[in-house]
Amino acid sequence: MAPSFSLRVLEVINRKRKKTRRKHDRVLRVSYVFCNHEPLWRNLVLEHLKGGFVFNGTWKSTYIAAFSPGCGPEKATSSIRVRDFYSDYLFQSWLCASLEMKPEWPERDNIQRRKRISAEEFVRDFEEPNKPVLWEGCLDNWPALEKWNRDYLIQVCGDVLFSVGPVEMKLKNYFQYADLVKEERPLYLFDAKFEQKVPQLGSDYQIPVYFQEDLFSVLGKERPDYRWVIIGPAGSGSSFHVDPNSTSAWNAVIKGSKKWVMFPPEVIPPGVHPSPDGAEVACPVSIIEWFMNFYKMTKEWKRRPVECVCKAGEVVFIPNGWWHLVINLEATRVFLASIQIFSVKHDSVQVPWAFDL
After folding, report:
1. What is the CA radius of gyration of the chain?
2. Which of 95, 109, 133, 222 could disulfide-link 126, Cβ–Cβ 3.0 to 4.6 Å?
3. How many CA within 13 A on the CB side of residue 346?
4. How far is CA 308 from CA 41, 56, 261, 281, in A?
């Protein structure tokens, strides 16, 4: 039915005048280009396959391979060369997916760094004045630093499904996706129930001494999510936001490294437009786009952002109300995020959360 219909369409077009055929040709070329736009195929995969897909290099070939097993990769990825077609929208998406971090973007590091300070010193110097800090060497007793590699995690987690954006995936399949993908906004594994799903993971880390007090525990089963395991490829991360409910954050890196950019509560980052009540935030589509268009201007601001690269074995404290952006810099990383209430001040709850593996 479909081939005969296509032939009839071609017959109709061929009867038209040459000028009309040129118009049809332009429409067909534009349609072809936009129909090969990878985000469209990504939406189809996530909608129809959920997390049950096996990524094989592009979203288009992944979708075609799932529904046409006999179609080889060369056919699924074949393309027609289209000349003299330009689109700012398509170019911007391609650029953000292809561009790597410029050397000057991660090099600025002005956060205060500490080693082996007491819990009292942390409260006095950072928690009470609401200032960021990076700790070095405070995760040396974590078994995860030695054990958490790809083979170990795949073995321990098996067929367990983890939250990845709008779907759930096996860790083995997610790692394959992370190895091959190159897109503007990579899918991010962000799971709050990892300890319930794989109890072994919970025995591989200990809460740092600075965050031992846990006031959320009085809520029992009604407590909100307070810790996450986070995994993402290079280029994945979170655009500018403020953590909810007056919470603070601690974020520990087990593998890889992360670039942090933080602004105090009274300084709204360039390119970010919060609603009057702060409930919604409008900002550039991708993290790379923010770096391309806005990062340079922050060097000239009187209130410059606090920045750092947090490496494996280090912990960042993000205070209550601070705007922050984070991007993963390396291709192999595992992160763990955790929220623990450790103090209450001025009728607002201070909560360190986020520790990355």
Report:
1. 24
2. 133
3. 7
4. 36, 34, 7, 23
pLDDT at 353 over 80: no
Q: How far apart are CA 297 and CA 68, in angstroms?
A: 49
Q: pLDDT tens for residues 233-280?
A: 989 999 999 987 778 888 889 988 999 999 999 999 999 998 877 678
Please state, in angstroms and rounded to a whole number, the distance separating the CA atoms of residues 189 and 326.
Answer: 15
Position of tokens 């819990």? 119
Cα–Cα distance between 176 and 251 in angstroms, integer?
Answer: 25
CB 253 within 8 A of CB 230: no
For residue 164, the cross-strand partners are 167, 189
Spacing of C-alpha 210 from chain mean position:
27
Q: Return d(Cα 248, Cα 22) in angstroms, integer.
A: 60
Name the token pair of 308. Answer: 């750092």
Sole residue written with tokens 């030695």? 146
Q: Model confidence at 75, in pLDDT bands (50, 70, 90)? A: low
- Distance (Å, rounded) from C-alpha 315 to C-alpha 260? 12
CB 57 within 8 A of CB 181: no
> Residue 218: pLDDT band by 50, 70, 90 thresholds?
confident
**246-275 burial: b if 16+ Cβ within 10 Å, else e:** bbbbbbbbbbbbbbbbbbeeebebbbbebe
Q: Tell me the two tokens of residue 354.
A: 């986020």
Tokens 């607002």, residue located: 348
Above 60 in pLDDT, residue 336? no
Taking every pair of C-alpha atoms in the chain, what is the biggest distance, in angstroms? 85
Q: For residue 149, give the DSSP letter.
A: S
